[in-house]
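Re: weekly structure request thread

Next one in the queue (199 aa):
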Amino acid sequence: MKLILTLILICFSFFCHSQTANEHFNNAQAKYKLGDYRGAILDYTKSIETIPNFAAYFNRGLIKHQLEDYRGAVMDFTKAIGLDKGVAEAYTERGKVKGKLQDYRGAIQDYSKAIELEPNNLEAYTNRGVMKASLKDSDGAVKDFNKVIELDPANSNAYLYRGYAKTELGDKNGGCLDLSKAGEFGHRDAYDLIEKLCN
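Done, posted below.
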């Protein structure tokens, strides 16, 4: 009988904590929608303290990124990934923040993991290409932008970035043609770069 009462108390306690965690999580989402980002962070923190969960860490990381608390965002995305290693978006978001911190190699690693989980992840390919270009790996950048264009032939950013990378590799003609294509697809910076790099 004591064992049954103990089990009931444990289950009830877990249910109450779960309900409280959900309430804090829902409050955080409501505060975020109202623009109360710091209040949302506090409620996500309360949710995490009650029951650590992927969604609260992930959402808190997004807000910290938005508030330019990049180190805090990296920590939250890392905690989220520790709870669920199969979510490509978590690696993509952590990669973005690492890029802001100029941890380009770390960002490339995260984008590569996101691509491993989602082989057609345009954002991860694009951002990985930008990080490679930042490390002067123009050849690697071109390969990533090729993949983006293969998946999305009208992607003006990919043409712009690939065009710039090609000019860095000494392929002025190919680069300028890509920049022109970016302009055709409406990229507002394309013609400024053509003027600077192609004439």
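The radius of gyration is 22 Å. Residues 120 and 151 are 7 Å apart (CA to CA).
Next request, please.
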